[in-house]
Amino acid sequence: MDDVVKSLSRVADDAGRLARDKGQETELNRLSRQLDDLLKRVPASNTLSSADRAAVQRATEQARLARDIAKALGVSDQIAGLISKDSIDIVKASRRALTTGMTPTLQLRLQTATQKVLKETTCQLMLSQIPRKTSGLSATAPAGSPSYRPLQPPTALNVYRDLEAQIGQLDQALSEAKKYVDLSSVVGKLLTKSSGYVSKVKNTMTAASWDNAGAFRVYMQLCVLKK
Questions:
Q1: Pairwise CA distance, residues 24 & 227, whole Å
Q2: Backbone angles phi, psi at 155, to 5 degrees
Q3: Lowest-pLDDT range, 23-27, 132-136, 165-169?
Q4: So what's the pLDDT on residue 146?
Q5: 165-188 average pLDDT score
Q6: Is residue 97 helix, strand or coil?
Q7: What is the pLDDT of residue 141?
Q8: Which of 21, 92, 106, 172 has the least CB density, counted as fewest CB within 10 Å?
Q9: With contact defined as beta carbons under 8 Å apart, do 69 and 214 qualify?
Q10: 116 or 63, which is more confident
Q11: How many CB atoms lie within 10 A of CB 146?
Q12: Kindly report the CA angle at 226 between 198 and 166, in degrees rounded to 5?
């Protein structure tokens, strides 16, 4: 029994470290499976000492945390792949009736601007929802957790201004874009899509995992590591 508890504690330490730091989906899934296998070898709780019960409980929590964050990292990879496709769809869905004069160059510029704003809006929204402890970060939060988050999630006005800036306010591109595309419609779809992305990530994790290292890990992977 001592060997099982020692192994549980060691693997739980590894899982916690990788959950907080740079562990990827495959590593986290491997450790969660390893913890699950070890937990099956643990005798009934009424035969355990209080210290062993605490070790088993911690290992159970670390297995769930690793599994949840692995799922969320997988979803963040899906979102990173969807952003480009969704940006094109958003522009197409917001085109005005008379669009025969829109050049391929302007269309590409609109799609590129929309793609960048979609990612930025998603990241701002996610950052606005990352929990912060008023009395300091939780013990399992990563050391590099941001001390800043926007007081409010991105608004339609913020996103509209960002989109205008990306299209190009100082040349003819912006006025041309407004002829062919309803930018207000684009903004509404950007906010809806961003909110759906963040909800999809949150739904892969328990509240404890989101409040723990999970939200920040996904934010880092989607918004910082993937440029």
A1: 17
A2: -100, 170
A3: 132-136
A4: 47
A5: 87
A6: coil
A7: 45
A8: 172
A9: yes
A10: 116
A11: 13
A12: 80
d(CA 79, CA 119): 9
Distance in angstroms (rounded) separating the CA atoms of residues 36 and 60: 8
Q: Which residue has the tokens 């909110």?
A: 195
Nearest Cα to 214, choosing from 161, 206, 160, 4?
206
Eight-class DSSP state of 95 = B
Q: What is the pLDDT of residue 137?
A: 39
| Cα distances (angstroms) measured from residue 123 to each of 116, 147, 218 | 11, 16, 10
Locus of tokens 């799609």: 111
Rounded to the nearest 10 degrees, what angle do helices 104-129 and 183-202 cross at? Answer: 40
Residue-wise pLDDT for 70-95, tens only, equals 888 889 999 999 999 999 999 999 99
Q: E strand or H helix at 2, and its extent?
A: helix 2-20
Q: What are phi and psi of 181, to 5 degrees?
A: -135, 140
163 Cα distance to chain centroid: 22
223 strand-pairing partners: none
Give the whole-angstrom CA distance, residue 30 versus residue 157: 44
Average pLDDT over residues 126-141: 61
The two three-digit tokens of residue 92, written as one number: 């197409």
Q: What would the mean pLDDT of 100-115 be, rounded to a whole number?
A: 89
The terminus-to-terminus CA distance of the chain in angstroms comes to 47
